[in-house]
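Quick note —
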Amino acid sequence: MIAIVKYNAGNIGSVTNALNRLGIENKVTDDPAELKAADKVIFPGVGEAGTAMKYLRERELDQVLINLKQPFLGICLGMQLMCNHSEEGDTSCLGIFDTNVKLFKSTEFKVPHMGWNSLNTEYRSTNDELKTDSNQKSKIVNQQSLILQGLPQQADVYYVHSYYAELCEDTAAVCDYILPFSSVLQKDNFYATQFHPEKSAGVGEQLLKNFIEL
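Predicted structure written out below.
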């Protein structure tokens, strides 16, 4: 059974529908015991970072989630909340991925970033692209994430977001909109996508199948 984390965020229904189409048993829950007992956990959502984290902390779900050992997939807001900090509401997040979430800033491109765009699974960065706010350089580790197996090197997937996760050592795939950002993150049993696999046609369905088969 796949547990879908219930918290103060929208769009959970689309993930439930996608799993139902694949014939996968699932349940929306914020019960710690059910989350711990699930075969896998999906952490989706569309919403505001500060409000969502407040819901998690009030129910002590933040500690439950970071200590889960089964495969765990964050989607969109779920991915951003798995990072260290979000500029949205100056929010401290779960800290699973050692990177920060920032607001797109551009006078040339539309924000939010919305619609179909690339998923680059073979990205190689330069150190200059990975300068942090403290001007330290880090090196990206391009992982062939298990949830990306069978996906083309360049694929179109569906995005809706105004904030992005910076590149980091956990970056497994990249999209370039205004600047390169993390489209997929992976660390240990934790996976995350900025795009919506449940809205990304065949590519998204394959990614969900890969996650289900972990």
